[in-house]
Amino acid sequence: MDYSVPWDDFAKFDLIILSREGREYTQFYRDRDANPPNRGTARWLTPAQEQKFEDYVNAGGKLFHYHDGFSYPKGNAISRVARSFFVRHPQIVNINVTTTGKMPALTEGITPFTVADEEYQVEMDESQTSVFLESHSPEHGRAPQGWAHTYGKGKVAVLIPGHNAATINHPMMLRCQQNIIGWLTA
To answer: What is the rounded (10 degree) CA torsion for 27, 28, 34, 38?
Structure first.
C-alpha cells in the first residue's frame, strides 16, 4: 500500500475520493499516531491535513466521501465540508435504501434495494445539503445514506453504505457510485 499523499498537489486532481476503509489502514494509523501528541488515539488525519481538503473544495475541487470518509472530529474541516458529523454506527442490520426525489442526477437508475450494512447515525442540518438517498430499518428508523451540495467553488458528495464487499458491489451501489462521480465531474 502506498500511504504517501500529495498534500500540496491537490489542485492537480479533478476528483478526490476520501475513504479510510481497510484493516491495514487502521493498523497503519494506529502505529503512526501511537505516541504523543495523540496519546495513542488514532486521528487518521491531522487538523492541518483536513484543512487541505477544505481548501481544495473551496477552490473548486470535487470531493467524494465514501463510507467512513467523513468520520472526523466535529467542527473541523472534514465535518464542515461534509456538512455532517458522524455520531455512531449500530450493529450491521438489513437496511432498506430508497431515493428521496432530490437531485435526480444522483439517483438516476436507482430502485429501492436492501443491503446488510452499518446504518450510520449522523448529525446534520438537512437544510444545508440535499439528502438524495436514505435508509429505513425496524431497528433504527430513518437515516440519511447519501447527500450532496456545493461548497465554495467546489462540489461534495457523501455516500454511506459500503462496509463490506457485498454492499460495495451491489448493482444499485455501483450505480450510485457512478452517478456521484458523474455529477461531481460534470
So the answer is: -110
10 DSSP β-pair partners:
none
Sketch the domain layout of the chain as residue ranges.
Answer: 14-185
What residue type is 181 in one-letter code? I
Torsion of CA 162, 166, 171, 175, to 10 degrees: 20
- Which residue bears the cell 503512526? 32
171: nearest Cα among 102, 101, 99, 111: 111
pTM confidence score: 0.88
Contacts for 42-46: CB closer than 8 Å, 24+ residues apart: 44/20, 44/71, 44/72, 45/72, 45/78
Cα angle: 20, vertex 116, 18; to 5 degrees: 15
The fold for domain 14-185 equals Rossmann fold (3.40.50)
Tens place of pLDDT per residue across the chain (186 aa): 456 789 999 999 999 999 865 444 555 555 554 444 444 455 567 889 999 999 999 999 999 999 888 877 788 999 999 999 888 888 899 999 999 999 999 999 999 999 999 888 899 999 999 999 999 999 999 999 999 999 999 999 999 999 888 999 999 999 999 999 999 999
Asked if residue 140 lies in contact with residue 119, where contact means CB atoms within 8 angstroms, the answer is: yes
Alpha-carbon distance of 144 to 160, in angstroms, equals: 8
